[in-house]
Amino acid sequence: MSRTEDGPAPATELSIDMTAIPSRAAVETFEDEDECLLYNPARDEASALNRTANEVWHLCDGTLTILDISETLGERYGVDGALLIGDVVKAIDALQTRGLVAVPDDRSPGLI
Amino acid sequence: MSAGAQRLSIGFHGRYVELQCGGDVLAGEVKERLGHLLVSPRPCTERILQVVLSEVATSWVELRDSTGRVACGSLDYVFHLARKWITAAFVSAHPDFLWLHAAAATRDHGGILLAGPAGAGKSTLVVQLIGHAWRLLADDAVPLEMGNRTALPFPFSPGLRTASHALGDDFQAFLEQPKMVVTVSPDQVALSRASIDVVVFPQYISSRANSPVLERLSVVPAVQGLASQCLVPIQDRLRALRDVFRLAQSVPCYRLLYGDAATAAAELTRRWSRS
Fold first, then answer.
1. Which of B6, B76, B82 shows the shortest CA–CA distance to B49?
2. Closest residue in chain B to residue A48, using alpha carbons only
3. Going by DSSP bridges, is the β-strand pair B60-65/B46-57 parallel, antiparallel, or unpaired?
4. B235 at the A interface (CB within 8 A)?
5. For an engineered disulfide with B158, which of B102, B139, B190, B197 has Cβ 3.0 to 4.6 Å away?
6. What is the ipTM of this complex?
7. Strand (E) positions, B116-193?
């Protein structure tokens, strides 16, 4: 973490377009129980998803906004969806970085 | 062909690579290192590569092949390359198989596949398994027929690094050591294919000298481990990944943490010999 002379730097501000609708890229999917491996032929790159990333990946169906995805997961686990926004954004950002999800917005959904 | 040269053939599944060896010494090396794959090709058999080995100076060997590649170096270096070229030729000639950088042994019709990166100890373990009445199926490259999950014999003689992992922390120095070729007698070599009962990813850990540990792997980590050892061109990667996924779903996969190959081989035998 970066620090100022007076102590820790202020928390990074979240700047997220919550209305962006991420959609899965055309990749090969290998699923077994809760595990998922995605192969992106364009990059010749395989990515193993953890459970959270796997759930987010499946919800990136081209109809749900990032907020919708957070709320859906919140309902699934009985928690306030707002509490999950940070994790969902991180997951989508990671998926987008590896070419597994496209977010139709110039801005990355990640932390800016 | 020059006087004193010998012509030998390495065969696999109806195709062969011809080796022209300049002299008895090189021919002897071929027989020692590749001898279990030597064949007498029938006239109808297809030659897929021609390799010429010639000693250009004392302990300095030149390697050429019919595709125009040329290399020079020590005997160990040249044979290392020759094995790679020969393997690549058979991989190209038989794309219907799943080829893995691995070793395999069989006992009582069951097979064990040892997969992993260079230095993991695949050859060392396969040699130790032979000491427990397993037969050598393959070392360095394993051709798998996916329809019935069988490994076909492709038995290069195993080569072992002369120093142990205890070389210190310099893993690169460990990898760059010359290898000692292990003589495996014909009755210790599998003549026919064997179904794969288990896939093992060895991982050397010095603290595990007397107590090897086998950790069951779930499918995705096993696929990642196997996929990284596929000997396929990039355009075939997706098909190989599908094959690897089917293999990992149907065959139990384990990570073997071991510090002593003899103890580890005994444990593998206890767990997976069918008798």
1. B82
2. B220
3. antiparallel
4. no
5. B139
6. 0.76
7. 135-139, 142-145, 150-151, 159-161, 179-181
State the burial class of residue B113 (Cβ atoms within 10 Å of its Cβ: 0-12, 13-18, 19+): buried
Look up residue B7 and give its amino acid. R
Region B94-103 average pLDDT: 96
- Please report which confidence band the pLDDT of residue A85 belongs to, taking 50, 70 and 90 as the band edges: very high
Report the pLDDT value the prediction gives residue A6, as an integer from 0 to 100: 44
**A96 near A109, Cβ under 8 Å?**
yes
Buried b / exposed e across B152-166, counting CB within 10 Å, b at 16+?
bbbbbbbbebeeebe
CATH homologous superfamily of A18-101: Coenzyme PQQ synthesis protein D (PqqD) (1.10.10.1150)
**Strand, helix or coil for residue B269:** helix
Residue of A nearest to B217 (CA): A35
Side chain identity at residue B126, one-letter code: V
Q: A37 and chain B: CB distance < 8 Å anywhere?
A: yes
CB B125 within 8 A of CB B268: yes
Compare all CA atoms of chain B with the CA of A33 and give the residue at the minimum distance. Answer: B219
Residue B195 C-alpha, separation from nearest chain A C-alpha, in angstroms: 23
Q: Are B247 and A32 a contacting pair, CB within 8 Å? A: no
pTM of the model: 0.86
The answer to whether B238 faces chain A, any CB pair under 8 Å, is: yes
Q: Are the C-beta atoms of A53 and A24 separated by less than 8 Å?
A: no
Which secondary-structure segment (H or E) carries B13? none
Please give the structure tokens belonging to residue B158: 């195993």
- Does residue B115 contact residue B98 with C-beta atoms inside 8 Å? no
Name the residue facing B241 among A32, A39, A48 (closest C-beta): A39
Q: How far apart are CA B213 and CA B216, in angstroms?
A: 10
Q: pLDDT digit string (tens) for B106-126?
A: 998 899 999 999 889 999 999
B220: nearest CB among A28, A35, A44: A35
Q: Is A95 helix (H, G, I), strand (E, B) or coil?
A: helix
Strand B253-258 to B38-39 pairing: unpaired
pLDDT tens digits, residue range B230-254?
Answer: 998 888 899 999 999 999 999 999 9
